[in-house]
UniProtKB/TrEMBL annotation:
GO terms for biological process: proteolysis involved in protein catabolic process. This is TPR repeat-containing protein YfgC. It holds the Pfam family Peptidase_M48. Transmembrane segments: none annotated. Its cofactor is Zn(2+). It comes from Roseovarius tolerans. InterPro entries: Mito/Outer_Membr_Metalloprot, Peptidase_M48, TPR-like_helical_dom_sf.
């Protein structure tokens, strides 16, 4: 799993006025993101949005929140995902955020984030409302952007009118997709009473998505009016269990995970959770036995092979890790996160030219993976392509909100790259953003 405890762009909304800045984590994992895509696809289609264009990603934050920053990205806090008890609950959150996109609520935002699929664009958009700082921690080192609470609440907060509209539209999307509307009621019930608390004690969702008894009653009435009994979708049930199980296995203690590994009734998920717990306990033998058992049950599942690669890579078994990632890549040749992991393993194995090819393929599909920008810059530098290394470093700093550092490397790239080339233009984009923020 690349539950990348990546101190990348901090999109958090939970910071209160008493805490001026805090570093948080953007979690990038191909398995979890695939699960969220599977759960979100019917809802997004019902909203008239392209499921292949809207990414659903997880922010490492224990409180409950979800938000959108542009028309292509929905962010869900890990704390909210772990509090969901059914796929319908999680899908109702996605439907509500999709409604903010479909209803054009982002148009009033004070920032034009352009297209947040570009790492630098997303980072520089956030930098306009946040101070940035470097940091490291967790599974990997990265860059942390500290977000000032008041500015972020102002940026992300929705009006009650928008919330009412998103509630109605979201319920319509759920009904059209054949999803139980009671999931939305259960989510609303989680936040009842929040508005009576002091701001510093409220969950971020209550501060950015104004709640009210009227909203709860309206959603309850819409659910009660549902004319048919909706049976759970087996595929949605499986991917919900898998996403929540994998997230909890990395965030809870190994002991907690091992005692609950089989709670969802899926043998492959049970073995996956056991593999993660044993890996975190530095027990490679048991971790491999468990993940191999999961793979035996789903031999063509690229995400299980990717997890096997991570276990081996983090245990410094480089060549077996390369083989595991190669298998995952063969099964999912278009998955940017898997391609990035394979490239990283190849780089560690000294296969620099091949690593650069896979890392570039990963970057071209998803320019927001901080590790890919870092690793590809290293590969390009080792290949003597200093201009490319500089533009990649500039984008990485821009994504972290470190615009002064980004400007230095973008200027260096501009002097090394052929004028007018695609890479040179990427450097100009970073320079333009950096200068605009001065």
């Amino acid at each position: 799993m690349q539950l990348l405890r990546f101190l990348a762009i901090s999109l958090i909304l939970s910071i209160t006025l008493a805490v001026p800045a805090r570093a948080v984590t953007l979690l990038r994992d191909p398995d979890i993101e695939h699960a969220l895509r599977a759960l979100g696809a019917p809802v997004l289609r019902a909203a008239g949005l392209n499921p292949d264009r809207v990414d659903i990603m997880v922010i490492d934050a224990p409180n409950m929140n979800a938000f959108v920053i542009d028309a292509d990205s929905i962010f869900i806090h890990s704390g909210l995902l772990l509090r969901m008890d059914s796929p319908a609950m999680l899908q109702s959150v996605i439907a509500h955020e999709a409604a903010h996109i479909a209803n054009g609520h982002l148009m009033r935002r004070p920032i034009n984030a352009r297209n947040a699929r570009n790492a630098a664009a997303l980072g520089t958009a956030l930098a306009a409302v946040a101070g940035a700082a470097t940091g490291s921690g967790g599974f990997a080192a990265g860059a942390a952007a500290g977000i000032q609470g008041a500015a972020m609440r102002s940026f992300f907060a929705h009006t009650r009118a928008e919330e009412n509209a998103a509630d109605s539209s979201g319920m319509r999307f759920l009904h059209s997709a054949g999803i139980d509307l009671n999931g939305a009621v259960q989510v609303m019930d989680l936040f009842r009473g929040q508005e009576s608390l002091a701001a510093s004690r409220q969950d971020a969702y209550a501060r950015t998505h104004p709640l009210s008894r009227d909203r709860y009653r309206r959603v309850r009435a819409l659910a009660d009016a549902q004319s048919r009994t909706v049976a759970p979708d087996p595929e949605a049930t499986y991917w919900f269990a898998r996403a929540k199980s994998k997230l909890s296995a990395f965030q809870r203690s190994p002991k907690w995970t091992l005692t609950r590994a089989g709670e969802y009734g899926y043998e492959d998920i049970k073995l996956m959770r056991q593999a993660i717990a044993h890996h975190r306990n530095a027990d490679l033998r048991r971790a491999l036995k468990a993940i191999d058992g999961a793979v035996a049950r789903r031999p063509d599942d690229p995400f299980l092979h990717e997890l096997r690669g991570q276990i081996l890579m983090e245990s410094r078994q480089i060549k077996p890790a390369v083989a595991a990632y190669a298998r995952a890549t063969n099964l999912a040749p278009r998955n940017a996160l898997i391609l990035g992991s394979y490239g990283r393993a190849l780089l560690a194995d000294g296969q620099v030219q091949k690593a650069a090819q896979f890392l570039e393929s990963a970057r071209s599909r998803d320019g927001r993976d901080f590790r890919v920008l870092r690793d590809l810059a290293q590969a390009q530098a080792r290949l003597g392509n200093n201009g490319m290394a500089s533009v990649l470093t500039a984008e990485r700093y821009a994504m972290a909100g470190r615009l002064k550092d980004a400007k230095i490397h973008a200027e260096r790239a501009s002097g090394l790259l052929p004028r007018g080339s695609a890479a040179w233009q990427r450097a100009q984009d970073v320079l333009h953003a950096a200068k605009a923020a001065e």
